[in-house]
Each structure stands twice: as structure tokens, then as C-alpha cells.
Amino acid sequence: MTSVARVAVDVSLPHLDRVFDYAIPESMSAAAQPGRRVRVRFSGRLVDGFILDLADSSGHRLQPLQRVVTEYPVLTPEILRLSRVVADRYAGSLADVLRAAIPPRHARAEAAALRAADPVSPVALPATEPAEAWASYVGGAALLTRLRGERADVHAVLTCAPGGAVDPAGDWPALLANLAAVAAPARGVVIVVPDARDLRRVDAALTRELGPGRHAILSADLGPQRRYSQFLSALTGRVRVVLGTRAAAFAPIADPGLFVLWDDGDESLSEPHAPGWHAREVLALRAHLCGGALVAAGFTRTAETQLWLDTRWAAPITPRRDLLRRIAPRVVADDASHDAGAARLPHRAWEAAKEGLARGPVLVQVARRGYVPALACQDCRAAARCAACSGPLAVAGTGSVPVCRWCGDAVPRWRCPSCGSARLRAVTIGSRRTAEELGRVFPGVPVLSSGGDHVIDEVAADPALVVATPGAEPIAAGGYAAVLILDAHAHLLRVALRAGEDTARRWFAAAALARPAATVAVTTEAGSPVVQALVRWDPGWLAQRELAERAELGLPPAVRSAMLTGTPAAIADAAARLPDDLRVLGPLPVGDRLRLLVTAPRSSGDDLTRALHAISATRSARKDPEPLVISVDPLDWGAD
């Protein structure tokens, strides 16, 4: 009889990222099974852990298990293997990944779910035919044929068409739901979306396709009890489709065979805590490990998905050009900023709004929320900052005094430290100030604001001005009669690795909400590559250009990368331990810290992560007091 449990303890220290043996008391011999959560004594305190395996003996003197917590194996062999691979890829620890992969236990939810699941029987789903909308996509029919076959190891990058309000080919939630419905009778499906708004839309589409109660939802917004209940529904096989946000990439679905990701460029899909994994890479690894299908969908492509296409790891699924000619909006660019005293709303944008309001709602996308979120000196253009903490100053409303956005101090008598001027100018205009200005330009027209803590999901087809920040644009019944993208230069002038890519995401997402042939007015010069891609509705061309530029400069994703941020002593110690064949940039000052940027050829990515994990383990073992943060394949090198 086995008497030893091999346990992964919930301890994040890198030098303890291994399995520990514990004795199984006779009273727990039946309950102590692989995959179950347990409580163990580790370094003098009680911690959680998971039993990974059982053994007959151990060469060590063992502490006993303190308690078997779960009545069901919540850690499956597939998720354990995936979590270990993800931890290794991001130079992290298994404990950190498992903490995100498996939600905290809720006893009441567990008891109810296990009663309902006894005995567990797989849910039978009827065969579903592919939607007719797939005929409007080059490669769409082939994708659906593969998903219905015995082997569904296809990888695809789906570029969605606009016009979802009027044409099924542009209704991306319905397309993703149909993918799931076609695949689910034969294999488990996991769909990951960035946020709660997308979750609600796909949830409604899945309910229409599969019927109520045929899929599970995994999101932290559900609350502990419902989230754990939904997790157990997938784990016990009562549903074959799981929809969720970032952490749902680890959902324990039975017979996993299709993984779908929407809008992989959204920063919400990147885990903010160590080891900083991205849902796109987790799903790609999972599809590779289990031989399943992967579909990354969006209105645009990231450089990472374009790399999949260039290396032929994935195939493109694109809307037919005749479809785009029929439903795509008409994009015009108008930049009047070079004219002295030019208005913030150029003439062509004003005309588009006026004509659109005669037919329905008009969307106005602005870069920032608030009133005036950034100020500068009127005379020398130096950024206006707080004297106490150096934070940026902002104005909350008409007649308000400048306030620091960091410490909250009011600065009624600000003076520029560079030139002594007391005059301020607005650097950017927020959504509330924009709504106020448009209300004066178009008197009598309702003005709605969506962004921040007040996000509107839908608006009616009646004429109205809808001012929204990126990602908070409501869906308009029948589509928007016109779309204005204001302050476009604020997006294009950002100095960051993914600035152009992120700008394209925001603009294409807003333009996709327009009616066919409606005017989309972008307030910048027409020569910008992002504008040119939008005019032709050709995000693939833009992604190819972006990836080629990064490859030429040796930037991600053409290379594997890491960012090390810490004190000078920590950076110097880490730099001395890095392999000689790595490319090291820096150190660069970041506040009171230094930063190293490290790259390696993609073929040497595993060597890079092993070296970084060894550095972390050594520092952890010797209790190094100098702080050092290691981020592998960070979302953006420009992030602080």
C-alpha cells in the first residue's frame, strides 16, 4: 500500500520549486489521491498543496499530511503538465501558475456540485452545422471541416469582418459560438475573451447555439461560490464548453480539442502577477501538448499571431474582398493640426458627424477619460507636474484648479519650474470635456458618455452622440451612422513597442461598429500606415509590416526577451550570471531602479528562461535583500 504522497506546496520561492514527500496517515489512505488539494506543514507553518503522485517509500524522514481538503481531484494530469510547461517558459514557479489555474475552494459549492455529479455522465450534444457566414471567409469552410473530423490539430488566425450589426459574417460572438457548437460533440472547447463585456456577448451567443446550461463560465467577477461551481461543472464533465477570461485558459475540460482566443492583443490577457504568462501563449502550448485546434480571432493581428502565419504554424482565415466591399465603412483622414488655430474637430469630421446624426447614432472615440487628464506649460510646453511628488497635473472640470493625479494635492498657484510661466494648456482632452464640447457644437442632440466606471453596453438606433474611450464603445442597434476618432495623434505619438499595434486594435474595433459605407473620420494624416490599413481594411498588411520591422531590429516576437528591473547591485549581480551569447541592452535608469533588456534567438528561448530561473533560485536561496523583478516576454518594453 502506498504510504508517501508527493506534494507540490503552495510556496513561490524559486529555490523550492520542486516536489516534497509527505507521509500519508492511515486515516487518510483512501482520501489521499493524486490531484487533491491538501494541507501540509512546511517550514513551521500550514500551507496548501496538491498531491501529484503516490509512492511506496521515501529516503527522507517525513512529516505527515495534515488534511485532505478536496473530495475530488481538482488538479488533472493535463493541467499539471500544462502548468509545469508554462512555469518553465516564463522562468517562474509551478505554485504561482497553479494558484491562477485552480480557483480557491468553496466548500458549499463543492458539496453541491459533487452531489449533482454522482454518477458523472458526459453531456451529449447534438451535431451542429457550420453557419452560412463561414462561406464569406477564405479558409472558413476548410477550418470547419477539420473541426468536424477525427483529427482537429489545425491552428488558425481568424481576421473578423466588420458590420456585425447588419451582416452575420461580422457577428464575431456568433462565429465563435458556432465554432464551439460544431466541435463540442466530439471534443471539449475552451473560449477565452479579455473582459466582462466580451464575456456577456459570447455567453449570449453560446446560449443561442447550445441551449441554456450547456456551457460553463469562469470569471473572477462571478464570486467565489459560483466560480468554483462552474469550475467543477467543467472538471466533472457536465459541460463540454467553457467560456471565460484570462485564467480560463487552464480550464479542466474533458477531452480538450479546441481552444479559441478573442483579441489576443488586449493587455487584460496578460497575467499581472508572477510569472506573467499570457493567455495566448498558454493556449498555444496547450494546443501543442494535447494535439488540439487553436483559433486566435480578432479584427486585427498581433505581431505574435503574424509570426505564427509566417512560420506556417497557423493558417489565415480572412474575409473575402467582395464581402468587405459590401459591408466595410468608408474611412477618411483629416488632420487640420498644422493650421494655426485649427479646431479640435476638423471640418470633414464635423461634416461626417452632422450627416450621421441625420440617420442615427454617431460614435466619438477619444483617447483618454476624464476632463483634462494632462497639462503643460503654455509658453515652453514642459509637462505640468506636482512639486510634492512630480505626478502629472489634471483638471477635473470647468473652473477647477489643477490636481495631482498621483497624490491628489490641489495646485492652485502653479508655476513652470523651467520658464516661470503661470499659464497652462491642455495636452489631451478627456471624454467628459469632449462630451461637453460636442454638446455645444450640436445643441439639442443627446450626448452619452461611456468609459471608466460608467460603461454602456448598448445604445438605440436614435440619433445621439456617444463619446467613449477605447474598449468601452457601446453596440448600436443597426450600427453607427458615423464614427469619429479624435486626438488620433495621441495614439500614434506613443513611444512603446506595441504602440502601432495597439492603435490599430482600437481603431479597427471602433470602425467595425459602423454601418456599411458609413463614414469613419480619423483626425490624423492619411499617410500613417495604421490609417492606410484602416482605409483598405487590411490589418494583415499592417501586421506583416510591423513584424518585419521588429525582425530587422531584433525585437520581440522575432526574438525571445526578458526585462530585469532592480537596484544597481541586483542588476550587476544578475548581469554577471547571464550567458555570454545573450544580447543585453542597458542598464537603463527607471526611477530609482535600473533595467536590463535581454534578448535571445527564439531557438535559444529555453536557455534564456533556464538562466533566469537559476538567477532567481540563487537569490532566493541566499535571501538576497536587493530587489529584482524578472519578466519574461513582457507585454511592452515601455511599461514601468
Please describe what this structure looks like.
By secondary structure, this protein is α/β, with parallel strands linked by helices. 31% of the residues lie in helices and 22% in strands. The chain has 4 domains: 4-75, GIY-YIG endonuclease (3-Layer(aba) Sandwich); 132-324, P-loop containing nucleotide triphosphate hydrolases (Rossmann fold); 327-539, Rossmann fold (3-Layer(aba) Sandwich), CATH 3.40.50; 554-632, 2-Layer Sandwich (Alpha-Beta Plaits), CATH 3.30.70.2750. The protein is built from 18 helices and 29 strands. The strands form 7 sheets. Strands 6-13-7-12-11-8-10-9 form an 8-stranded mixed β-sheet, with helices on both faces. Strands 14-25-24-15-22-20 form a 6-stranded parallel β-sheet, with helices on both faces. The chain is globular.
